[in-house]
Design goal:
mainly alpha; Serine Threonine Protein Phosphatase 5, Tetratricopeptide repeat; three-stranded antiparallel β-sheet; 43 helices; transmembrane; Ankyrin_rpt-contain_sf
């Protein structure tokens, strides 16, 4: 190995590490030490010198490789640590084993080895402290080992003992003159490591016994580490109340209580670190804060980031300390350099209790909507922390669902889009605004009050349905079923339903007129037209057959209806145009209010098809031309009629009596369409197969006819007699067999199985369909109400519209913020404004116990990860409540045990008194000579 080392050449001086320049010397020393260790194995060990020598050589090789690498680039802390472990295991073999004789022999062989720190700065005294061997340490100290010797990291033996918490070693080193004021002498490569004294280490680790031993030497208590942290900073960081109490007894420490470290943190700041505390450590921190404040710590001190202790306590989720600081006159209006208030900190940590303490102060009401430098308000941070309770506290203390941020996003939108448990929060908020009287349930004066203040926007916005509008655009439409929202919608609908009925009446008039027009124009029987113009057109048409009889039966000429009534058609088109304006404008307003929602719905596409086809049918230029054949108008008219009546069905879905069932129909239709798409491949396969097998029948002569026939056969319209007759005419028996076999498969898989499956889908879970139909029905009403209000706002901004008409239309639009219902009083109109089922549900909500929290979450279409986050938030919330209850129970148990001890002592005293009284009576009886005297003495 020596040869290999020499062959490598000498390292240039520029690349040589000053701490590793003794590589070759260390190598030979290690070889000698290894041989000595191998020869001096104790009797109790397995003496395998060959194996031991191989292990030592492996260690040697590892040392040399590390040293070779270190000469080219500075070693990292991991390299140094690995190297120290290898060298330490070789050099301090005798020390680790506690072999004093072997140590004395090694030291006698090499007198300089006692204080030598050649091997990476490790001296024997360091090895003894690391091994925590008091006998070896005393032996080294008796041999005048230097206590001030430092290792590679600039630590003395006392530093190492304080780090490991070895109290015997600390006591021994202090007796031999070790100084607790020695600062770590860090090498240049480790300038980022914190330099500290042994006393700093003991205080930082919370080692009270080590601190007490060092304080006996009267160290300099004003010394700070390299980050300007004094003893109080380090003690506060460890949350050690006994050490802080002991330090505060010193006058020097009490004077330093307001000093700040390199980032401007005082001892009180350091106690309230922003990192999460360990479990059950809140009480320790509270006691430490009390001790520091009682000793004169400034509660309104500001660090370099502008953070006060109150801000850090709120951010660290410490509500008890927040309450304490507020009682000690902490200022809750201070702002950080990022322009955040203490309310921001409480919301960011999700601590609702701290937020309640902060908002109980009158001076913090103006900071509920305060914006920091990143544009975040407290409500934004509460939503980001997924804290339902913080959002609820903010909304209860002046914030509102309709308030907007600088981007125009409302609080309600933030909740619906970013809070996983939005449904639970909104339900909890709305439940608080339903109240009932304390009278009996069946008393005539029993009253249910609905407070619509969380739903109504401020007067400046003049749009009462803003919350309802955002709810209809979200995936949380299940909230429409809440009694407060449902009663709000029904009350508002009742006031403006006349407008909707007028709109439906106008559309019905248009639909009847359009239906009559289509029937007159395209629904009359075909008539032959022998005029010269018509015959000329027929002869010149490239799409017609040569047979004139067939041509006259397939075509309709325009002059059969409107050619002679052009004036009437003109007036009719004017009426159509006026009706189009009355119909399309409200529909467009409704669509524009919920454009995102309607673009995902099939309703808008049905309306587009109905309006465009009807417009084309009525205003087609071919209607007044006697020489034009109406080929495209007939199918377009059929489409127009179908889709126009389908639009009327969608309009009727907003009616109370019909809406639920129509929306149930649409839901079932969507499910069946999905199933038909899923099984379409099977239907297409049967259609092709039957077209091949029964090609002689007219219903299977092409694919389209075959496909339609298969759909008819699905409902049982098989017409087996005709199919069997075609089999008798067939000449190929194999075709007949395959046809019968395919027909049997079709009967089982399609007619029986698939048809019954479709029927099951249509009728399954009727209660769920009814509930969902009610929600969709309320959503339809909400979209109409929002469109109505937005139309009013638009017309109010434009002065051309008469104000008298606007006031007439706007008067029923705005409802009172509170609605009182007496369900048991006599009414002339027996129909309640709010359904009885909704009132009963509201009463049930009010009768729910206060501690009965509804932790059920409506899944809907939410992401499972969001739901998991919701349950995680609920879990930690319940866990914290449970921990608080456990602490209270533990305190009560302590009180109970103390009471029982007092009762036990009282029993013992009573027994003792009873014994004394009995002895006294016995002595009196023994000494008395007469009964009266005894009774008198008693």
């Amino acid at each position: 190995m020596a040869a290999s080392s020499a062959a490598g050449g000498e390292t240039p001086a520029a690349c040589r590490n000053p701490y590793l320049s003794y590589k070759s010397q260390t190598h030979f020393e290690l070889c000698d030490k290894a041989a000595a260790v191998a020869q001096g194995a104790p009797p109790g060990e397995v003496r395998n010198s060959a194996k031991r020598t191989d292990n030592i050589r492996d260690m040697e090789q590892k040392v040399i490789v590390t040293l070779d690498n270190a000469t080219c680039h500075p070693p990292t802390l991991n390299d140094i640590d690995d190297l120290i472990q290898v060298i330490f295991s070789l050099k301090s073999h005798a020390i680790n084993r506690g072999d004093v004789k072997k140590l004395n022999k090694e030291l006698s062989d090499d007198e300089k080895a006692l204080n030598s720190s050649r091997c990476m700065g490790l001296a024997p005294i360091h090895a003894a402290v690391k091994a925590q061997n008091i006998e070896i340490l005393r032996e080294l100290l008796n041999k005048k080992a230097l206590i001030s010797t430092r290792n590679l990291f600039g630590n003395t033996a006392l530093h190492i003992a304080a780090q490991s918490g070895w109290h015997k070693g600390i006591k021994e080193l202090l007796q031999y003159g070790a100084s607790p004021d020695k600062m770590t002498d860090l090498p240049p490569l480790l300038n980022e490591v914190v330099g500290e004294t042994p006393l700093h280490i003991a205080v930082r680790k919370g080692d009270l016994q080590s601190v007490a031993l060092m304080l006996r030497k009267e160290p300099d208590l004003t010394l700070c580490d390299t980050r300007q942290c004094n003893l109080l900073h380090l003690a506060a960081k460890s949350h050690s109340l006994p050490i802080i109490t002991r330090l505060l007894q010193e006058t020097q420490c009490r004077k330093m209580i307001c000093e700040k470290n390199w980032v401007g943190n005082s001892a009180l700041h350091t106690t309230l670190g922003l990192k999460s505390l360990k479990e059950n450590e809140d009480c320790k921190v509270l006691e430490v804060v009390k001790a520091l404040i009682d000793a004169g710590a400034e509660v309104n001190s500001i660090n370099n980031s502008g953070e006060c202790p109150l801000y850090r306590a709120a951010f660290a989720h410490l509500p008890e300390i927040v309450e304490l600081l507020l009682k000690r006159n902490a200022d809750p209006t201070t702002l950080t350099l990022s322009n955040q208030s203490v309310i921001h900190a409480a919301c960011a940590s999700g601590c609702s209790e701290s937020l309640k303490h902060l908002l109980s102060s009158d001076c913090t009401s103006n900071y509920i909507s305060h914006i920091d430098n990143d544009g975040n308000e407290p409500f934004h941070l509460a939503v980001k922390s997924c804290s339902i309770s913080c959002c609820e506290v903010l909304l209860d203390n002046g914030d509102h669902l309709t308030k907007t941020d600088y981007q125009g996003i409302t609080r309600f939108s933030l909740i619906l889009e970013h809070l996983p448990s939005a449904t639970q929060l909104i339900r909890s908020l709305l439940d608080k605004h339903i109240s009932i009287t304390k009278t009996m349930r069946h008393d005539p004066d029993f009253k249910v009050t609905f407070d619509y203040s969380p739903l109504l926007a401020p007067k400046t916005k003049r749009l009462q349905c803003s919350v309802i509008s955002e709810l209809s655009l979200s995936k949380h439409e299940v909230l429409f079923n809440h009694p407060l929202i449902e009663s709000f919608l029904r009350t508002k609908w009742r006031s403006i339903s006349v407008t909707f009925y007028i709109y439906v009446a106008v559309y019905c008039f248009f639909l009847i007129m359009h239906t009559i027009f289509v029937l007159i124009t395209y629904g009359t029987p075909l008539k032959e037209n022998n005029s010269e113009d018509s015959l000329g057109v027929i002869q010149n048409s490239s799409n017609l057959n040569n047979s004139s009889d067939l041509v006259h039966k397939e075509l309709i000429c325009a002059d059969s209806v409107w050619c002679n009534y052009t004036t009437t058609l003109t007036y009719l088109r004017i009426v159509y145009a006026f009706m189009y304006i009355l119909i399309i404008i409200p529909s467009s307003l409704i669509i524009m209010t919920n454009i995102k929602k309607y673009m995902r719905s099939w309703e808008i596409y049905i309306k587009i098809v109905a309006y465009t086809t009807s417009f084309y049918v009525v205003f087609s230029p071919n209607l007044v031309s006697s020489s034009t054949i109406l080929i495209a108008e007939r199918p377009v008219a059929a489409v127009s009629a179908l889709f126009s009546w389908a639009v009327l069905m969608m309009q009727l879905s907003r009616l109370p009596a019909l809406g639920v069932y129509i929306l149930m129909f649409t839901h079932v239709a969507k499910s069946i369409m999905k199933m038909l798409v899923a099984f379409s491949t099977l239907i297409i396969g049967f259609a092709v197969s039957f077209q091949i097998l029964y090609r002689d029948q007219s219903v299977f002569d092409n694919f389209l006819h075959s496909f339609v026939k298969i759909l008819m056969m699905m409902i049982g319209e098989i017409n087996y007699i005709e199919m069997a007759a075609s089999d008798t005419n067939a000449t190929n028996n194999v075709t007949v067999i395959f046809g019968s076999f395919f027909l049997m498969i079709f009967l089982f898989y399609v007619t029986v199985l698939m048809t019954n499956l479709l029927i099951g889908v249509a009728v399954h879970d009727v209660p769920v369909l009814l509930q969902e139909g009610n929600i969709r029905h309320l959503s339809k009403r909400a979209s109409f109400l929002v469109a109505y209000e937005k139309a009013l706002l638009y017309f109010q901004k434009n002065t051309f519209f008469p104000k008298s008409i606007l006031n007439l239309l706007a008067r029923p639009c705005y409802i009172h913020p509170k609605k009182e219902i007496f369900p048991n009083k006599y009414r002339k109109n027996k129909i309640l404004t709010v359904p009885l089922e909704t009132i009963e549900e509201a009463i049930a909500i009010c009768n729910r116990p206060a501690n009965d929290e509804n932790i059920s979450v409506d899944c809907g279409d939410e992401d499972p990860s969001k739901l998991f986050k919701t349950f995680q938030v609920l879990y930690f919330k319940d866990k914290k409540v449970l921990d608080t209850n456990i602490k209270q129970i533990a305190n009560e148990c302590k009180k109970y045990s103390s009471i029982m001890e007092n009762i036990q002592l009282l029993h013992e005293k009573m027994d003792h008194q009873e014994t004394l009284i009995c002895n006294f009576i016995a002595s009196q009886r023994y000494n008395s000579q007469s009964g009266p005297v005894l009774s008198k003495n008693i």
